[in-house]
């Protein structure tokens, strides 16, 4: 009998795209990451990435209208993967509030990073972090 492969630890959140949800995303992603081996600077980088990506979705995705923020995270082969997505307007090219540094901070600390327009609308931020090394 072949043993079953171990389940991949994962976190999935779906929250309203409101400012108070950012705090919840940051806390829950941090707790999940810490439970699965993230510590020190990597844990701080993961927490910052979750917070910045969620904040961007709240501020930019829905133009002040109601919307949904989705966050998924998993741990596999010593890496932490984070995806933050919305169903909003996508990249518009219009001026926006803020300094525009949040995505750069995520990219700086991640070992892999992508920002994608979603085919049916919205944006997805994907980042991967090495847990040890």
Tell me the fraction of residues in β-strands, as a range. Answer: 25-35%
Number of strands: 5
Instruction: Provide the residue-averaged pLDDT.
Output: 88
CATH class: Alpha Beta
Could you say which structural class the secondary elements and strand pairing correspond to? alpha+beta
The number of helical segments is 3
Q: Order of strands across the biggest sheet?
A: 1-2-3-5-4
| C-alpha end-to-end distance | 35 Å
Query: So what's the overall shape?
Result: globular
Q: And the CATH topology?
A: Heat Shock Protein 90
What string, H for helix and E for strand, traces the elements in order?
EHHEEHEE
- In angstroms, what is the radius of gyration? 15 Å
Main beta sheet: 5 strands, antiparallel
Q: Helical proportion?
A: 25-40%
How many structural domains does the protein architecture include?
Answer: 1
What is the CATH architecture assignment? 2-Layer Sandwich
Q: By CATH's scheme, which homologous superfamily applies? A: Histidine kinase-like ATPase, C-terminal domain
Low-confidence runs: none
